[in-house]
Structure formats: structure tokens, C-alpha cells
């Protein structure tokens, strides 16, 4: 089980402010081959995210982990409606645009994901995604440290 630290919260809060997003969230797979669980969401409207888990390959976040690359969902992009409908967090938080960035806390295959979301239709800039990718790598290191304590 992952223990969310103040540094993780602060990192996600700062990222949300920097990209002018409505939500940033962190999910991690606690054991290999298991389900991913949302552990923290900055800007969430409720605590429902804590009860949401999902399989690798399911929804935008699960697809990012399966593919090992960034996945984007926006009403302006064709074919992304299904990924939005499969993501319980996007539905619960009424997000219309999102970017999911996978990361690894073990140095191997991705086992976590950082989600950026907006409740309006929006296209995240390359700069937003590049900055968030660095944050995802940082979160992977923080998760590795927390999991080993």
C-alpha cells in the first residue's frame, strides 16, 4: 500500500496550479499484475476517487500503463469518447479532457499513472505534457521510496 506523503500532495497541487488544470491524480499498482488504485487527487470534488480501481488497459489511465506512453482524451479528438466512458474517475469528476502519463516506481514496466484533467474541453499543450512528464518521473521515485519504507 502506498502512503501519500506531504511532498506528493504538494507536487500534485503545484502541477495543477501550473497547468491551470482542474484535477491532477496519482494511481499506482500495489502488486505486479494487480489493479491500479487512485491514491490522491488534487482538485477533486469528492473522495469517491479513493474507491476507484481499474485494470491495466481499461480507460485512459489503464491504456497509458499498458502502452507505456502518454494517452490523451478530448472531445476534440476522434475515438477518445470510449476511453473517457471507461474511466470512472473522469466520469465521477465530470472531466471532458485528460492526459494520462505512465511512470514506474520500480525502474521497470510502468506501474503508476499521473492524470491531468479539465472539466471543460481543452487541449493540453506540449509544454504542459512535458512538464507533467517530469513530475510523473519524480512521483515514481517518491512512490518507490514510500513503498520501501
Automatic annotation (TrEMBL):
InterPro entries: GAF, GAF-like_dom_sf. SUPFAM superfamilies: GAF domain-like. Residues 4-141 form the GAF domain. It holds the Pfam family GAF_2. It comes from the Bacteria. This is GAF domain-containing protein. It comes from Paenibacillus terrae (strain HPL-003). The lineage of its organism: Bacteria, Bacillati, Bacillota, Bacilli, Bacillales.
